[in-house]
Design goal:
single chain, 192 residues, alpha+beta, 2 domains, four-stranded mixed β-sheet, two-stranded antiparallel ribbon, 44% helix, 15% strand, globular, binds zinc ion
Length: 192
């Protein structure tokens, strides 16, 4: 699995120009069919259908599915929707009001919050390193009231830092950036 940009046409161009590299060995990837379509839920009743590209490495021969940057591994909701829940929790809101606001089952939202909360220190550390690495003049976020809040603040801080370094990235939401920086695995058991 490899996280790529949200623009499918651009990804196709990069693939045919052999510009996408295998995460295992660095050799170019070639197109190799398509994975099963996935339906992702956005805000309100919006639904996004993605048909992830399947690729094969010209070097080691391993296949990699390209996941657009708005999709987290094994999650049926857009990264922005999950991120909105995480940010709301960090600002002190409870799971029920968050679930009502986003129109999602309480158990689903609780699952996101639990997984993220369980790795809050890891997320904080990872994204603080990213913030310091990429920031032009990085300012680590002030401590929040909770470890959960610290982790969310680090994600936002890293996205501000990335925007200061690469102005194009500034158009990307913090949660897409977090998705890209974790290879889509922000809430997956296999990360980091
Ligand atoms: Zn390879």
């Amino acid at each position: 699995m490899l996280t790529v940009g949200a623009n499918a046409e651009k990804v196709e161009r990069q693939l045919s120009a052999r510009e996408l590299a295998c995460p295992d060995c660095g050799a170019p990837l070639k197109p190799w069919g398509w994975a099963r379509p996935r339906t992702l839920r956005g805000g309100a009743a919006a639904v996004v259908v993605v048909r992830p590209r399947r690729t094969r490495c010209l070097g080691c021969g391993v296949s990699h599915v390209l996941l657009p940057v708005f999709a987290l591994v094994r999650r049926a909701d857009l990264a922005e929707v999950i991120g909105a829940a995480l940010a709301a929790k960090a600002s002190g809101r409870g799971v029920r009001p968050i679930a009502v606001e986003l129109g999602r089952p309480v158990e689903t939202v609780r699952g996101w919050l639990r997984r993220f909360g369980g790795r809050a220190e890891l997320v904080r550390a990872r994204f603080t390193v990213l913030l310091v690495d990429v920031g032009v003049d990085p300012v680590p976020p002030a401590p929040a009231a909770t470890a959960f809040g610290d982790a969310v603040a680090a994600v936002f801080g890293a996205s501000v830092a990335a925007a200061s370094r690469w102005p194009d990235v500034g158009k990307v939401s913090p949660w897409r950036m977090a998705c890209a920086a974790s290879g889509g695995r922000l809430l997956a058991p296999s990360w980091p």
